[in-house]
Amino acid sequence: MRFTTIPTASKRSRATLAATAALALASTLAACGAAEEGGGDDEIVIGISLPLTGDFSEPGKGIQRGYEAWAEYVNANGGLLGRDVRLEMLDDQSSAERVAADYEKLINQEQVDLVVGPFSTRLVIPAAQVAQDYGYLFVEPAGAAPEVFEEGFENLFYAAPAVADDHYKLLAEHILSMPESERPKTAAYASMDDPFAQGTAYGLKDALEEGGVKTVVDEVYPPNTTDFSSIAAKVADSKADIVVGGSQYQDGVNLIVALQQLNYQPKLAAFSTAPTETEFAEAIGDKTQGIIAPTGYTTKADYPENQEFVKFYEEKHGEAPGEDEANAWTTGQVVAAAVEAVECAEPDPECQSQLIDWLRENEVDTVVGPLSWDDKGRPQSAHMIQQWVDGEIKIVLPKDQAEAEFIFPKPAW
Amino acid sequence: MSLSLLLQSLILGLLLGGLYALLAAGLTLYFGVMRVVMIAHSAFLILAAYLAWFFTKQTGLDPLLSLFITVPLFFAAGYVMQRALLSRLRPATLTMMSVLLTFAIALVIEGGLGYLFSGTQRRIQLGYSGASLELWGARIAVVKLIAFGLAAISLLALFLLLKKTRFGQALRATIQHREAAQLLGIDTDRIAGFGFGLGLATAAVGGTALALDATIYPSLHWHWIGPLMAIIVIGGLGSIPGAAIAAMILGVTQALLQIPMGTTWAQTVFYVALFATLMFRPQGFFGGRLAQRF
Amino acid sequence: MLSASSHGRTPAAIRLVAAVVLLGLVLAFPALAPDPFILSVGVVIASYAALAVAWNFVGGLTGYISLGHAAYSGLGGYGTALLITEAGVNPWVSMVVAALLVGAAAVPIGIASLRVRGASFVIVSIALVLILLLVAQSWAGVTGGSNGLRVPRPFGTDVLRPEQHERFFYLFVALTLVALVLWWLIDRSRLGTGLKAIREDEDKAQALGVPTFAYKLVVFVVSAFFTAMAGGMYALWFGSLDPIFQFSILTGSYLVLMSLLGGVRSLLGPVVGAVIVGYAVEFFKNQYGDTQLHLVALGLLLALVVLFMPDGVIPWLTSQLDRFRPGGTSIREVDAAQLAEERKALEEAKR
Questions:
Q1: pLDDT tens digits for A173-201?
Q2: What pLDDT, on the 0 to 100 scale, is given for residue C338?
Q3: Domain ranges of chain C
Q4: Transmembrane residues, as ranges (chain B) (predicted)?
């Protein structure tokens, strides 16, 4: 072993290197920002961070398509306050750490005029915090979980009909109104540990427990779970009358396949999100008959705003918009309504607080119907219940909007 | 808890244990021939699963057929990786630096998969994915049975290869005493390369088996590397039978613990067993003298 | 051990001036930063620097490479958050107490993982992160499950966000400085000598009577403590904890890359590495934001460093520069393996 010394000359050059690096850092980062200053007089820049890669990339891209379609539509119809709308989008890689940095950057470096929200509760909360700290209005398309509204944000508005707990409200009412002999007695719940997914399942669970339906299985799994065989084994073993999945997309599919593998046949199966996706039927081998899902949006709703949206979107993409696209479009509509009403879209706090105040007081007509909010930013409408009937997903509740009869009990899958 | 649920879980555990056993055998093989902790093993596993998925998606053929492509490909990749990259490292710092190097390879694979196929979860759509057989009131999914069969056959083939062939003897000699093997005229460098190729071939088989009945996404490999590394330490670093036995025991234990504890907590059994092993029997429970020094 | 200054050609005074100027530049950064976003990037880099220096207590002094230091920073963050929200302790006290607790928890972990050589140490370091991720996700009653925890702000609401960034920047710099001073002291102590003996040849060190196990354990615990401090401070700054990010092997691997890049054997190496890597991450995101290519880049960079510059890029660069310097001293720190290789090369050249 030898004890030797590092030549000091190299130590000095190391210090110089470090100093140069530090300086270069400050100047180049500033340079990338300075290249794109926020909107001038002729355009309104809207800053958005979206999960385009990572866990939430699938819905993230849906939201992106919705925002882009909305901006195009607005620009084709004369813009906002006579100014063109330009979207400034960043990818947060589905990471909460990134999303905060992204909004920090949008607000300070790009100096955007407005910001709108990302996807998923987990990303909405840190993002809303940054927006609030800089006094920005924050309308968001996807952050339905109860936690979002309990953080005391004063700038936040959720642009969809109802918060997660209320998604199954109509289904719960329907089940509890069944005659005693038909009504299910036991229920099994399996939910992703995600504020939104869990919120939907537990909303139904609370309502059903109150109505006397016994909970026999209550499982929560982390978002990265891929093996559902043991959860399915427990659900199948309990022989529960109904199964409720608080799911996003793939986990819902996996759970259904695992339940099929165990030949478990419930009288009713309700899953959030997954059954509304286009690939769902193929993914579970077309055994869809009777599967239920809540939805905040349908292309068939007869609001004039919606018909225009569907027409515009279909022309552009050649296919009907989904719920994510509609939520993003709704977000755009809500922001636009406020901007038109108070006639400003500037980063300065006064304009932003006027926008916030206006939304507190007013109702906005959107593709999902008229929306208004309570003082925490919760929307005040209800979700519809859809069911797979003969290879198509159709609205079954509420009765006055139903396209098909509610199927109960569910046929075997 | 009912008896049928117990039986069901036992079956699930055995089926899973088989896959663990095959993969851990590969991991311990690398350690045996080169004293290398191969972090990228599970990344290659996921890569093989993606290749199977992509193969089925493009051709519409059964994913099992992709084995004819992935196994030779991975064998070659393993050989090249050992000869071109790992053998360049200095012997004095081999253990640490090989961890970093294979870790870097894992990152490149994960990032590449994410770039090509996005982070979206994927699953092969199979006509028989929901099918199952009945056994004493329990259900065995056909896809899981195929996966287990694949793992069992490969493990048996690996065992026979090591025990019955000249190459196997040379490989075992290299594992046991490299210098002595050299003196006997064995080209240990080549043999080590082949050993690496074999290890990576197990990842190809395992990946295809995995793809039959699971969802895959690029960062899934982190989910696998922990349990696999725990298995090879518990089984005794470098011991293939030890790894296989530890894998079966832990797979079944995990499945049974899932009944009272839930999926996530049950997975901690691997790490609890790992810490207990290091505290009380650092050389592992089935391992030879190799393990003591590393 | 000889002190560097007595042999150097540069007078101590000049080196002191250089250090002061460097520190001055760092401290002036918040004033120079053109907007709060860049300031926030500065905070992230400063936190990386603190973490990398903390990592280097084990990595640099003993040569044991831990890929799982995110375990300690995550525990520090969760501990801080829980002490504030559940026990109502003052945020700063929480941070220190949490770090002390993590240091205490590192004792049994160190005993389990340091008894055996390299391979098991790495496996345990990775396993620890994975197990903690599982626990953080499952133990929803305490850790908030996959949703994580919200951490209350340590400053009042009247402190605006840019000002918070500024304060936390100085706090991270202060933490880094404290860790650097301690590293420097250990490096020059009997303990440091023993540790470096372990790094070069653990068997020989043991034979020479160095209490290898105890020495390794001491720096391991110190490293866990500082990592937890940095983690707690990050939690206070960022305001929320997401288990997947807190207990991520990727975070740990960034620390390894930073230290290796800057040079694990030198005092300032990890800091330089943190600045380079932290900046590169932001730059890469700016250029290629929407893809997973940053993982590929990280992987390739790590592989290059491991294969060609295992002593660090900066030491490699400076040694290349020194070749051209007239009268440059030929003495440099080498380990036994390098010496053997050099000798071999010389012999071959003679033939």
A1: 889 988 888 899 999 999 988 878 888 89
A2: 63
A3: 38-325
A4: 6-29, 36-55, 61-81, 93-116, 136-162, 191-212, 224-250, 262-280
Highest CATH level, class, for A43-162+301-371? alpha beta
DSSP annotation of B86 reads: G
Higher-pLDDT residue of A136 and B289 is: A136
Q: What would the CATH number be for the domain defined by B3-287?
A: 1.10.3470
- Which of A52, A96, A121 faces C290 most closely, judged by CB atoms? A52
The CA distance from A284 to A261, in Å, is 11
Helices (H), C289-335: 293-308, 313-324
Q: Count the Cβ atoms, other than its own, within 10 Å of residue B163.
A: 10
Task: Return the axis-axis angle of helices B221-235 and B94-117, rounded to nearest 10°.
Answer: 150
| Nearest residue, CB atoms, C138 vs list B91, B237, B264 | B264
Q: Note the maximum CA span of chain B.
A: 60
pLDDT higher at A172 or A223: A172
Rounded-to-integer distance, Cα A195 and Cα A107, Å? 27
The whole-angstrom separation of Cα A382 and Cα B132 is 40
Interface of C with A in 307-336 (CB under 8 A): 314-315, 317-319, 321-322, 325, 328-329, 331-334, 336
CATH number of C38-325: 1.10.3470
Q: pTM, whole model, 2 decimals?
A: 0.80
Spatial separation of the C-alpha atoms in residues B98 and C343, rounded to whole Å: 24
Q: Residue A4 and residue C334: Cβ atoms within 8 Å?
A: yes
Report the pLDDT value the prediction gives residue A33, as an integer from 0 to 100. Answer: 41
* DSSP H or E stretch at residue A188: strand A186-192
**Average pLDDT, integer, range A34-54:** 71
Residue B43 has pLDDT above 90, yes or no: yes
Q: Which amino acid type is present at position A271?
A: F
Domains A43-162+301-371 and A166-276 share a fold: yes
Question: How far is residue C4's CA from residue C18's CA, in Å, rounded to a whole number?
Answer: 16
- The H or E element spanning position C233 is helix C212-238
**Domain extents in chain B:** 3-287
- A406 DSSP assignment: P
Distance to chain C for B80, nearest Cα, Å: 15
Cβ-based neighbour number of residue A75 at 10 Å = 15
Q: Where are the domains of chain A?
A: 43-162+301-371, 166-276
C259: left (phi over 0), alpha (psi -120 to 50) or beta: alpha
Q: What is the CA radius of gyration of chain C?
A: 21
Q: Which residues in chain A touch residue C44, judged by CB atoms under 8 angstroms apart?
A: 101
Q: How far is CA A113 from the centre of its chain?
A: 23
pLDDT beyond 50 at A405: yes
Question: What single DSSP character describes residue B195?
Answer: H
pLDDT over 70 (residue C3): no
CATH class of A166-276: alpha beta
The one-letter code for the residue type at A341 is A
Cα gap A335→A324, rounded to integer Å: 17
Report in angstroms the alpha-carbon separations of B146 from A215, B71, B142, B152, C70: 35, 17, 6, 10, 38
* pLDDT given at position C351: 54
Give the contacts of B9 (CB within 8 A, at least 6 positions apart). A230, A233, B255, B256, B258, B259
Residues A159 and A365: their CA atoms lie apart, in Å, by 11
Q: What is the mean pLDDT of the segment spanning A16-30?
A: 45
Residue in chain A nearest B126 by alpha carbon = A285
Distance separating alpha carbons of residues B42 and B25, to the nearest angstrom = 12
Query: Helix H segments across A48-194?
Result: 57-76, 96-108, 121-133, 146-149, 169-176
Q: Name C156's Cβ contacts closer than 8 Å, sequence gap at least 6.
A: none
Question: HSE on the CB side for B87, CA within 13 Å?
Answer: 16
pLDDT band at residue B1 using 50, 70 and 90 as cut-offs: low
Mark yes or no for CB contact C18/A12 under 8 Å: yes
Using an 8 Å Cβ cutoff, are A383 and A296 in contact? yes
